[in-house]
Amino acid sequence: MYTNILSPVFYIWIVYQKKQPVLYQFFLVLIPYNIIHLLLGVQLKSFLISNLLFLSTYIFVVCFYYFINNYNRVGRIYKNILLLNFLFTLVALLLLFTPFRELLWYKNKFTQTVEDFFRLSLLTFEASYYSLLFAPVSIYFLLKIFFKQYSGNSTPILLMSVLPLLLSLSLGVIGAMLFAFGMMFLFNWQKVFYKRNFLSVLVVSVVVLLSGFLLLYFLFPDNVVFIRLSNIYYGVDTSTRGRTTESFWLAWKVADERSIWFGSGLGQIKELAHAIVKKYFDYWGDLEVVRLPNAVGETLAIFGVTGLIIRFGLIFYLFFKTKVLSNYYRTCIFFFIFIYQFTGSFITNIVEYVLWCIAFSTAFVCFDRKGALK
After folding, report:
1. What is the pTM of this model?
2. 3-class secondary structure per residue, the chain
């Protein structure tokens, strides 16, 4: 990605801004792991390439965190993204009925018995990644609507915020967003639940969701959403299993190949996982690279149990240090990405780190608890 390719430029920029080196904390943690992994044995080429990728990811994250805390027009950027995204969504809807639909739509196996299904992905490589990119913008404007920070008709904003997510049909992202809003309301129930605006939004939301559910149930009982949800419930949806239970199981096996406490090292999953899949799943097909589509699982495979301790220790430390609960938007983003990391993503996923940066930033003061709800 350009965020990795341009990391030398980003590094020069951030050092100029902060007037101090920014990599010593990173190396303080990574070098001891690298020494252990080299002693345990690694495939050197993959190890070195993955270290460079990991380093470039860290540099971009530091830059973005500095940016989000010092730029005061993020709302304008969000507005531009919302408008441009909806424009491309309309173009995508037109292309859906042409031979060029795969330019902006992702075709894949949606679930068992549903093959070659089209989901909105625009110019990204798949629908779930697109919806993860769009989620913080959608959450931002949904909160804007809830807190009545628009003087006019908010229906167009609601449509532009929700329709692209529905067309992407990323149940993981949508489910994580519902969880995030639920946690935000739960942690602020004394301020929120007794507000007339909340009750009206809640009633409208329940009526719309229930009406949509009943409409689908009676008119389209065999729709793809119900089939997917049914497959997930009965444990036969391969995508859900691959992103959750099977990822954790495979991550444990990969880590255990070298050290369950310190993991197998960067770049070693693709070197070790293939043989594990063949051995335990009795799979001998044409499978070139095995990936772990789960950020927590990848952390376990690469850095072991100690890596997980550092990961969650840092998350909870920053949660309290930056007072996430003092801001409604940052609260939603935190719980969204917190639950999502158990169901998807990967350890060098720029989008995930951007969301963590937003959650732990000092930005978005319009959603501070002291001012957003009065």
Report:
1. 0.92
2. CHHHHCHHHHHHHHHHHHCCCCCHHHHHHHHHHHHHHHHHCCCHHHHHHHHHHHHHHHHHHHHHHHHHHHCCCHHHHHHHHHHHHHHHHHHHHHHCCCCCHHHCEEEECCECCECCEEEECCCCCCHHHHHHHHHHHHHHHHHHHHCCCCCCCCHHHHHHHHHHHHHHCCHHHHHHHHHHHHHHHHHCHHHHCCCHHHHHHHHHHHHHHHHHHHHHHHHCCCCHHHHHHHHHHCCCCHHHHHHCHHHHHHHHHHHHHHCCCCCCCCCCHHHHHHHHHHHHHCCCCCCCCCCCCCHHHHHHHHHHHHHHHHHHHHHHHHHHHCCHHHEHHHHHHHHHHHHHCCCCCCCCCHHHHHHHHHHCCCCCHHHEHHHHCC
